[in-house]
Amino acid sequence: MLSLNGTPFQPDTLQLTGIPGVQTGQAWVALTFCILYFISIIGNLSILALVIREPALHQPMYYFLSMLSLNDLGVSLSTLPTVLATFCFNYRHVGFDACLVQMFFIHTFSFMESGILLAMSFDRFVAICNPLRYAAVLTNSRILAMGLAIFAKSFATLFPFPFLVKRLPFCKGNVLHHAYCLHPDLMKVACGDIRVNNIYGLFVVIFTYGVDSVFILLSYALILRAVLAIASREQRLKALNTCISHICAVLAFYVPIIAVSMIHRFWKSAPAVVHVMMSSVYLFVPPMLNPIIYSVKTKEIRRGILKLVHKSQT
Question: I need a surface site. Which of 106, 115, 168, 194 has the fewest CB within 10 A?
Answer without folding.
Answer: 194
